[in-house]
Structures are given as C-alpha cells and as structure tokens.
Amino acid sequence: MTATIKELNTVDEISEAYPVMKQLRSHLDEKTYIDLVTEAKEKDSYRMYALIDDGDIVAVIGFKPMITLYYGRFIWVCDLVTDAEIRSKGYGEKLLTYVHEWAKDRGCESVALSSGLKRKGAHRFYEDRMDYDRVSYVFKKELE
C-alpha cells in the first residue's frame, strides 16, 4: 500500500472528505458537517486526517486529545470510516495506527473510542485486529 496520510485543515480539504464521512455520519448534510468540523477544530482541538490512495480519499479519522480522571491523558477517536466499496484493505488499520503513534509522541497513555451497538464488523476490527479492550458502555440522553 502506497497510501499517504494527510491532515485536513482547509474547508476545501474537509469538504473533499465528506463523501466518505457521510457513510458513517449519514445524518449530516455537507454544510452541517463542515460547520461542525470547523467549530470542533477551532474550539475542541479536533483533528481530521485522510488516507489518500491513488489520489482518492479512501478513509477518514477524526480525533481529539482529552484528559479525564478515568483515562488520564488520551486520544478520543470521534470518527473513523473507510469507504464501504474498499474495506478490508488495511486503510482503517493504517489510520488508527497513525493516531496511536501521534498519541504516543504527545505523551498520551491510551486511545479510546465508542462504536455503535449494531456495528459488529467494526467491533471485530477493534478487538481482533487492533487489540482494543471493550471497557464500558456509552449512554446518551437527548435534551429537549
């Protein structure tokens, strides 16, 4: 694999990743997606990287450094998606491994993420291929 990893910083770069990210975040239209990514980058230290193979974005990861009493200093992976047409070629593994190294270089102790209950294939990827431990449930309450 001769793919390269690139941080997405400009609105144009973020927009180029939308077709792949939409596969994971299907509830977002492009404008809302760009607005949220831009605000998260400005206010919440969110970073977005793309894996580019043969000139095309094939996978995208979004993450942010955090500090909590439970995890200490760590990276929270907010978004990770590989284009559905070309999964199982090592793209997700390459991006997640890149984030592991990024985290280590900055003194982080771990990388954590959540994955939807129905995403059984993703769970197998994280546990079997990437050696992640299942450590908790994530709960959510919609506010009126």
TrEMBL record:
Pfam name, any one: Acetyltransf_1
One example GO MF annotation: acyltransferase activity, transferring groups other than amino-acyl groups
Organism: Candidatus Salinicoccus stercoripullorum
UniProt domain N-acetyltransferase: residue ranges: 3-144
Record protein name field: GNAT family N-acetyltransferase
Source organism, top-level taxon: Bacteria
